[in-house]
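Now read these lines:
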Amino acid sequence: MRTIVTNAIFAVLLWTSGNAHPFAGDAIRVERITPRLVNNSLTVSANFVNLFSAKIVGTIQSGLPSIIQIEVRLKENDARQVAQRQLVRSISFNVWDNRYTIRDDSTRFLSDLEEVKNVSSRLEGVVIVTAAELRTSASYQLQVRVAIVPISSSQGKKVTDWLLDPNQTEETLASDDRAGGFKLNLSNLLSFFVGDKKQSQYSSDWHGSPTFRIDDLK
């Protein structure tokens, strides 16, 4: 099991060829964001819709991985951000064993694509902060954004080898879009992902929960 920071490297690696943006009804979105208080910690659950386009399914079934990046932020009184989390899942398919692998904080093996979609399209009970860190007099909102990114064949092996190296060092990864390439490190990759307009078809907007107070969850 890798840490979230190490896994997050996966989330930002592909420059896809420019496809048309999906129709509004097909856009990736987040639904049913639910805050709960569990063991004196604030947790969040949510559902993701339209993550698996035909391109994403085709990428996975070809044997190349796809990566789901989930971002969660907690706002106080509609303004100040008091906490954030970033989680990453990788989905891969072994064409020889006919078996899918989902990796995040655990590893799951599945044989049915629909089950892979169902499991991957949920966020369940992720801890954001302890209740002691929050003010009972304040109102809060949880906001969630999700993206899915297919890894290209030209970059997949180099990136995978680098991630599996226990002695990771910065390394330049060539890019067709950026002649000079960029360094394989978390901050640069996140910056690249956020700034790449081509990726918007694979990312939802931010979606928020109803506002709540901590005492409302007890």
